Amino acid sequence: MFARWTLTIAFALVVAALIGAVASVFNPEAPLVTGLVFAAATLGPAGALGWFLFVSPKTVTPDPNAEDNVENTWLEKAASAAFVDLLVLLSIALAVVSVSGRSPDPQLLLLGAVVVAMCDVAIRYVVTARRER
Asked: Where are the transmembrane segments (predicted)?
């Protein structure tokens, strides 16, 4: 088990260092600071990925019925309904942009779509949970 944890830590350090090195190439003004910030920011996720790859397969036994619960059912219902709402909203937005000839900022449109989708799922989840309790 010690070897698996050592491999996990080494994997995390190498991945974080590589990401920091790649990030430092894209900022010639302050490459050291950029590399250190990116390496520090990715160390945790890289460690989690290393744990998932090297430690988890030998220590965690998956429960085949882990996702058979009422909360997951509510979330699936909310997400599927929100997906349909998002498709309708994006279709209407596409029609408006096509007819008007104006091209708004795509980043703003994507941010709006993500926020609407997240709020829609949250509201539908709460409504479904209250209705089925």
From this structure: 33-54, 74-96, 108-127
